[in-house]
């Protein structure tokens, strides 16, 4: 169920334990081969798949497309808002939904630059709504173990406009992939203690612009290994975990 497609009477009649899902994303450069809306397209696609699996069991809130992407600005084609603005908007949007009596909210993130600020948002919402369960996750983390069996390029192959994001776009929105412009592996040298990717975390984070992280290419990873079939497998793995999460939350039990 999509919030904006229901009437107020239909929303009022829902079981308030029905989990709400909110996609937070980004509109930013994704190299020479992917549309700037890649993160928002992926986030919307995953929740569309979830809604198809649980059409009466989840409510999808309107997506927050533009996120915190200041670190991409020097590469062009990027929209961004400040952290305080993003925090205020997302918390107020989510709070408005929760004020109608809903008790479960999952914030699904699809942009690396939203990870830290998304965690802050979830903490703030949990403090303000102590009777609600607030969950924050990012799509490549919620299914990390399954995704490790899908990646072919090894460590560093999945980062930005990479093997995974390109594959998801090939399956979800093939018209937004410039197939003839898919570049070779991208990235830049880093300290060993700050070297990680979507699936392999680093001991510490060295904060750098995306230009610095990618040697100016805007691509971090191995997009040449992408395929539509891989995109389907990635989405299957993520949605399977989101279904488990939705069912657990709807059970009304904290056990």
Structural class: alpha/beta
Low-pLDDT segments: none
Q: Give the strand order of the largest sheet, numbering strands 1, 2, ... along the chain.
A: 2-1-3-4
Number of domains: 1
Q: Overall mean pLDDT score?
A: 95
CATH class: Alpha Beta
Helical coverage, percent range: 25-40%
Give the full name of the CATH homologous superfamily. Answer: Creatininase
What overall geometry do the principal axes of the alpha carbons give?
Answer: globular
From the 3D coordinates, which CATH architecture would you assign? 3-Layer(aba) Sandwich
Let me know the number of strands. 6
- Estimated share of beta-strand residues: 5-15%
**Rg result:** 18 Å
Task: Please give the largest β-sheet.
Answer: 4 strands, parallel
Write structural notes for this entry.
Pfam families: Creatininase. Keywords: Hydrolase, Metal-binding, Zinc. Belongs to the creatininase superfamily. The structure is a single chain. The chain has 255 residues and is an alpha/beta fold. It has one domain: Creatininase (Rossmann fold). The strands form 2 sheets. Strands 2-1-3-4 form a 4-stranded parallel sheet, with helices on both faces. A two-stranded antiparallel sheet has the order 5-6. β1, α2 and β2 form a beta-alpha-beta unit. α2 packs across α9. The chain is globular. The two termini are 26 Å apart.
């Amino acid at each position: 169920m999509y919030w904006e497609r229901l009437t107020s009477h239909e929303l009022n009649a829902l079981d308030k334990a029905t989990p709400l899902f909110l996609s937070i994303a980004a509109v930013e450069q994704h190299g020479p081969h992917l549309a700037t809306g890649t993160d928002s397209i992926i986030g919307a696609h995953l929740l569309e798949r979830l809604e198809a699996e649980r059409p009466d069991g989840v409510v999808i809130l309107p997506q927050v497309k533009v996120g915190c992407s200041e670190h991409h600005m020097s590469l062009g084609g990027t929209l961004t808002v400040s952290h305080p603005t993003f925090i205020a908007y997302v918390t107020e949007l989510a709070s408005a939904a929760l004020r109608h009596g809903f008790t479960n909210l999952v914030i699904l993130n699809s942009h690396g630059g939203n990870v830290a600020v998304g965690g802050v948002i979830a903490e703030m919402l949990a403090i303000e709504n102590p009777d609600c369960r607030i969950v924050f996750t990012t799509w490549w983390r919620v299914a990390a173990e399954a995704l490790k069996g899908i990646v072919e390029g090894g460590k560093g192959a999945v980062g930005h406009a990479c093997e995974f994001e390109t594959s998801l776009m090939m399956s979800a929105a093939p018209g937004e992939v410039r197939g003839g412009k898919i570049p070779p592996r991208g990235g830049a040298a880093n300290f060993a203690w700050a070297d990680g990717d979507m699936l392999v975390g680093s001991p510490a984070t060295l904060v750098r612009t995306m230009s610095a992280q990618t040697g100016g290419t805007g691509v971090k990873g191995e997009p040449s290994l992408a395929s539509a079939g891989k995109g389907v497998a990635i989405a299957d793995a993520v949605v399977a975990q989101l279904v488990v999460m939705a069912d657990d939350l709807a059970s009304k039990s904290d056990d």
